[in-house]
User: Fold this.
Amino acid sequence: MHYQFKFAKILSLKDKEKEEALAVYQETVKRFEDAAEHLYSLLKKKENLELYQAERLHAGLPIQEIRHHQQFVGNLEKTIEHYQKIVYNARKHMSFQQDKLMEKNMEVKKYEKMKENHYLRFLSDEKHEEGKLMDEISIQQYMNREAR
Assistant:
């Protein structure tokens, strides 16, 4: 007798949904990492600029150059603030997609567990039927011996 899981199509559909959710999650992780790396480079740039400006202040620098640096740092801080929001939103979206992936994964696991239980029940029923068939064969052989 051939085994056929009655929810095989649903299981394959859920598995496909899980794979799609995984792909979306991986994409959100990549977007988060890209935004975080860009934010990190901006913060590093600001830190280096402030160190450079501190060194230049010790050596003495014209007021025009100080204003230029302050304006540049101000613009850099606005950009950093903007990227902090982007990173925050990317992290939120990544977390949401991770939750969806976990949910899809749990659904697939439920159907896989159902399949496993169904298969074990199938094997048990098959073994039981085989035992009944063997009993019938034994009874028929016994009856044939008695008839002789």
